[in-house]
Amino acid sequence: MRENSALEAPGRCPMPHTIKPIDSDKPDFGGEVSGIDLTHHLTEDEITAIHAGMDRFGVLVFRNQRLEDEQQIEFSRQLGPLEQATGDIMAEKDRRLSMDLNDISNVDKHGELLPRDDRRRLFGLGNRLWHSDSSFKEVPAMYSLLSARRIPPTGGNTEYADMRAAYDALDEATKREVRDLICAHSQVFSRAILGFDDFTEAERVKWAPVRQRLVRQHPNTGRLSLYLSSHAGMIEGWLVPEARAFLRDLTEHATQRQFVYAHVWQPWDLVVWDNRVTMHRARRYDPGEVRDMRRTTLTNEVSSLSQAPA
Questions:
Q1: Is residue 10 part of a domain?
Q2: Rounded to an integer, what distance in angstroms lies between the CA atom of residue 252 and that of residue 267?
């Protein structure tokens, strides 16, 4: 543990903090935070400010946060309960991180690059599709907190789409059509888009489709947003081809440039996003370069079915 660990600074004097829009053309989507050191235990004011910033911006960027794994876990737990990293296909013997951390990387437990045909790497390519983290779980994710430990020299950016603005921009007829629809989400659906079907029977059972709303209401702000993901493969009561065509149309609408913030990673960035109001995707990079990211994830605690529009 580094000397200024999250557990060793109860008496520190917090700095003034600010959150400013990253893009003046998107004043309420994507904020950059200054004056909060995530390697220390947060004050109540700092926790309140982060939650308020998330309610407004959906995505928050913290620069130069040199977190070790335990510090990232400790910081994340101050914001809410964690979900476990059960969404990958990594065998227990191959894990290099605790179950509190999602290993978003292209290296094995020895730090060596995964071969291009490695099953874990091919499964991980699904992160390049627009998605919402853990929408394939009955209780999906709330915040995701991604720390950049080592990044490639070019590429590997992450794009975020504002699903609140995308919902607001729908015409009234489409808003009425989508309002009460229920979708089925599964990682089997999303990986099939890329032609990946190398699942064991146990994995197919583990990722059996779960029900999620297509429109959900944020519990704090009351705003409505589309809840889309590459994991969504069916709409209840619809024929599959029609449902998938409609979901693709909605995704194309929601990921227009005016709704998207593209984050260019710097070493030790930590980015937090609210999966209830965003989708995201990783961008391509040289597979011969290391990209080592660690993600903690807060559970939403309730199903999206409990967040129906009022």
A1: no
A2: 31
Instruction: Look up the CATH number of the domain holding residue 214.
Output: 3.60.130.10
Task: For the chain, give the percent of residues with pLDDT over 70.
Answer: 95
Q: How many CB atoms lie within 10 A of CB 97?
A: 16
What DSSP letter does each residue of 265-288 carry, written as one string? --TT-EEEEETTTEEEEE----TT
Tens digit of each residue's pLDDT (9 = 90 or more) over 139-194:
999 999 999 999 999 999 999 999 999 999 999 999 999 999 999 999 999 999 99
DSSP sequence for 29-81: S-EEEES--TTSPPPHHHHHHHHHHHHHHSEEEE-S----HHHHHHHHHHHSP
- Mean pLDDT estimate for the chain: 95
The alpha carbon of residue 100 and the mean position of all alpha carbons in its chain are separated, in whole angstroms, by 15
Specify whether the CB–CB gap between 93 and 110 falls below 8 A: no
Please tell me the pTM assigned to this model. Answer: 0.94
Tokens of 167: 């919902």
Residue 3 is assigned to a structural domain of this protein: no
Q: How many domains does the chain have?
A: 1
Which domain, by its residues, includes 260? 18-306
The answer to whether 157 and 283 have CB atoms below 8 angstroms apart is yes
* Partner residues linked to 187 by β-bridges: none
**Cα angle 304-57-36, degrees, rounded to a multiple of 5:** 115
